[in-house]
Design brief:
This protein has about 725 residues and is an alpha+beta fold. Strand 8 and strand 9 form a beta hairpin. Helix 14 packs parallel to helix 16 and helix 16 runs antiparallel to helix 17. The longest helix has 21 residues. It is elongated, with a radius of gyration of 38 Å. The two termini are about 60 Å apart.
Length: about 725
């Protein structure tokens, strides 16, 4: 990376967060370091960025201080209303105080640039950050697990509060604090004992805490939120034995979702790029500063190695591609991401056994950063061609731009219908204006498919609705099958494997505020919830099945037949074989005798009392005894074997077949069944119109458009051969 400028001192750094003064950089003499001249003084300075390259940055303001600094942060408090044009600068010192400085006074050489001093902490303030969305709030962390929130609504009289009770256990030094970039009242902190805590300021309590189960007690140095994904956070380890960064998804805080390894010694600092969530910079005790793609874990490029540890790296919040690095070698350097050297492939094993990638200078960065990538683009070419691309796909599309005003007018009608959410009305209008009955049928079916009650309306379109019939059988079929399977799953709770992250829903679908509220509730009620779940599990266990009870036959009609009409028949003669078998509980023999005598109803009743296997066998024997069309449909519904039924059904009765699968087939199987019926109609019956309707029900636009195109091509050819093009043009125009 080329060096834009430098500051000749070991200092902790903070960039200006306001766009008006984005080229300003604050530097405070870092605690724990000494210069070559053994100078023990401390200064808080402001420098102006010089983009000429390589030169020492000009000093625009300086303040002599008594204490050296552990952390600086620069907020935008007062910038919006003009009361503080340069915002506020907070400086955490090694003695536990936090100094609030007005950078405007510092630059103008005012006598009193220090607005306030906060003495709430008892040790070095290593964690310090202004809330980027609520600039009046300043979070700070120091020794003994102290985390405080300072309200700077009136900077001269700051008000200090605690975000919640400390975590139980011995205190530890807080090494870093970070505000969530998406949920303004969420704060995270991490400490040298390996514990990371997420605080909710609205609830005034920690909502979750987590540690690395593989290395409890590791010395954490950095915690940072993903700038785009509210539930992703990264934690870096300062341990030489465990030099890695772990990305956690707080929807499942049992284990990290990704681990970035590349440093050979502990990581001292890291910063997530605010303009590109796929860029992360880190520095360690191995004197290396690496730029990562956290999504893939790949090292994209590397800064020139320093002669000593780099303890502070930060992206500029307002100037993309610029970042600062501060090292104990006595220099703060400002780098540009342009023309960065890439780390391409070569891996070596260090003395401590860790795999290290060696840089190859002079090669470009592996990929362009987000701010240089176009989200989309388009360009016109000769002959009405349009080429376009989108960041959502790696494909480049070339299209023909229509110049027909009629096409444009119809496209506008469709766009208006889409915006109004009235596709059904659009299809109804097209059906009324259709030039032929076949076209009208197509538009009427599209009107049905655009409705919310598609399945019922399809039967009406096919002319097979019985207005006096009760709601049909799909809910009844589900009820008939549920008793056979549901209790088995209810009695067995799912196993929980906390060490393995489970698949999560897409992150863009997560409501961050709701998620953190749920975390707080879960943390507060964890113990009581476990006992409640045990009690619920015991109560939900179904009773043991009663062999004497009659199983529910899995037929679509769950109601018993009424005792009237055809069932009022003369009683059958008393058969001693049937009576003897029934008295001895031998239902199978009784059923066999009844079937042999043609007493089907008696056989079915006996089978229903003889257990599930006997019922199923008797039912199947009865269904197989009659090959009529009705029995084939009934068998398909009972066995839910619609694939076989569609494959063997009579094509002249395709409407009945289409109605049957719309009434009884599951939503997952419906599309494939409609496709299968359409293929049979097209290949075996040559009925393209009926096949189109089936393809439309299957949402198979490719096949439907293919048949439409063939139809209108035939119409156009016939019209041209007959010397009259009006009919063909009309149909083509509607198409």
């Amino acid at each position: 990376m080329p060096k834009v400028g430098s500051i000749p001192r070991s200092a902790t750094v903070a960039w200006s967060s306001s766009n008006e003064h984005s080229g300003l950089l604050a530097a405070g003499t870092v605690a724990g370091a000494i210069s070559d001249t053994f100078d023990s003084t401390s200064h808080l300075d402001v420098f102006s960025l010089d983009l000429q390259g390589g030169a020492e940055l000009p000093l625009v303001g300086s303040l002599a201080c008594n204490d050296r600094f552990s952390r600086l942060t620069w907020g935008t408090k007062g910038v919006a209303d003009g009361s503080l044009p340069y915002g506020l600068l907070a400086a955490g010192t090694a003695n536990g105080s936090v100094q609030i400085v007005d950078p405007g006074r510092l630059i103008s050489r005012h006598d009193a640039p220090v607005v306030a001093t906060i003495d709430s902490h008892s040790g070095p303030v290593r964690g310090l950050e202004f809330n980027p969305a609520v600039p009046e709030l300043l979070a700070s962390g120091a020794a003994e697990s102290e985390v405080f929130i300072t309200d700077l609504t009136n900077p001269s009289t700051p008000r200090v509060v605690s975000p919640g009770a400390k975590s139980p256990g011995p205190g530890a030094d807080i090494s870093c604090v970070a505000w969530n970039r998406r949920v303004t009242h969420i704060l995270a902190s991490t400490s040298h004992n390996g514990l990371s805590v997420v605080w909710d300021l609205k609830l005034k309590k920690p909502v979750i805490n987590f540690t690395n189960s593989a290395n409890r007690g590791q010395r954490n140095s950095v915690i940072a939120w993903n700038p785009e994904v509210a539930t992703q956070i990264i934690v870096a380890s300062e341990d030489d034995a465990f030099p890695s960064m772990q990305i956690w998804d707080l929807r499942n805080a049992f284990a990290p979702v990704k681990e970035l390894t590349g440093h050979s010694k502990g990581i001292l600092t890291a910063s997530w790029c605010p303009q590109d969530e796929n860029l992360l910079i880190s520095s360690g005790k191995d004197n290396r500063t690496l730029c990562w793609d956290p999504a893939t874990g790949e090292v994209l490029c590397e800064l020139p190695p320093s002669a000593n540890w780099t303890f502070d790296v930060q992206w500029s919040p307002c100037l993309p591609a610029l970042l600062s690095s501060a090292s104990f070698s006595g220099e703060v350097a400002v780098h540009s991401l342009a023309d960065a050297s890439a780390t391409a492939g070569a891996e070596e094993t260090g003395a401590d056994g860790f795999s290290v990638q060696e840089p190859h200078a002079g090669k470009p960065m592996i990929r362009a950063p987000k701010w240089l990538r176009r989200p989309c683009g388009a360009s016109f070419g000769f002959g009405g061609k349009l080429v376009r691309f989108s960041h959502k796909s790696s494909e480049v599309t070339i299209e023909d731009v229509p110049s027909d005003t009629g096409v444009v007018a119809r496209a506008e009608q469709l766009r208006a219908a889409l915006e109004a959410g009235d596709l059904a009305g659009f299809c109804a209008h097209k059906a009324e204006a259709a030039p032929s009955e076949r076209d009208a049928d197509d538009w009427k079916l599209m009107e049905v498919l655009c409705s919310h009650d598609q399945r019922t309306l399809v039967l009406g379109f096919l002319g097979l609705v019985d207005p006096n019939a009760p709601p049909p059988a799909e809910p009844q079929a589900e009820a008939a099958y549920e008793p056979q399977y549901e209790p088995q799953y209810e009695a067995q709770p799912e196993p929980v494997t906390p060490a393995t992250p489970e698949p999560q829903p897409p992150l863009q679908d997560v409501n961050p505020e709701e998620l953190f509220s749920q975390m707080a509730i879960a943390t507060e009620r964890q113990m009581s919830q476990a006992s409640e779940l045990d009690a619920m599990g015991a109560a939900a266990t179904p009773p043991a099945p009663d062999d004497s009870a009659s199983p529910v036959p899995p037929e679509p009609a769950a109601e018993p037949p009424a005792r009237a009409g055809p069932l009022e028949t003369a009683p059958a003669p008393d058969d001693p074989d049937v009576s003897l078998a029934m008295l001895n509980g031998n239902f199978a023999t009784a059923v066999e005798v009844c079937l042999a005598q043609g007493r089907v109803a008696d056989a079915l009743i006996l089978a229903a009392s003889g257990g599930e296997e006997l019922w199923a066998a008797t039912r199947d024997q009865y269904l197989a005894s009659n090959k009529s069309a009705f029995m084939s449909r009934l068998s398909a519904v009972v066995h839910q074997d619609f694939d076989r039924y569609v494959a063997e059904s009579s094509l002249p009765a395709w409407k009945e077949t289409l109605a049957l699968i719309h009434t009884y087939a599951s939503a997952e199987a419906l599309q494939g069944l409609c496709n299968l019926l359409g293929e049979r109609l097209e290949a075996e019956a040559g009925d393209a119109s009926a096949a189109v309707l089936c393809y439309m029900c299957a949402a198979n636009t490719v096949k439907a458009v293919e048949l439409w195109h063939a139809r209108y091509s035939e119409q156009s050819a016939g019209a041209a051969g007959g010397g009259g093009g009006g009919g063909g043009d009309g149909g083509d125009d509607d198409f």
